Amino acid sequence: MTQQILQPKGWAAPRGYANGIAADGRVIFVAGQVGWNARGEFESDDLVAQIEQALSNVVAVLHAGGAGPEHLVRLTWYVTDKAAYVDRRKDIGAVYRRVIGRHYPAMTLVVVAGLLEDGALVEIEATAVVPKA
Hints:
alpha+beta, CATH 3.30.1330.40, four-stranded mixed β-sheet, two-stranded antiparallel ribbon, 6 strands, globular
């Protein structure tokens, strides 16, 4: 796959995300994944644990489509508690690197009043581009 990070000249380096990505290939869209297990059950009410599970769920869907974390071009995160996210950034970064690696696609974080699934603290949707065969 051809993937190019788009960073406008003169802009400060982004923190943990790319300002833009250009890519060629087959596109995979991953619906919002919350922090529950394969049975649809939350195992934790901890934000970091739910983020780890949600990211793992994204990776599982990618694998079902013949892709991996390195093919991600966009992630959108929805969190219910901005203060909790900010307070736990180091832990979140460690979980991100453990599940996704050191690949940083274009990312957006949105703080929301709530999520559809009771108990969900985070929901993450993704777009990936897989190389053409």
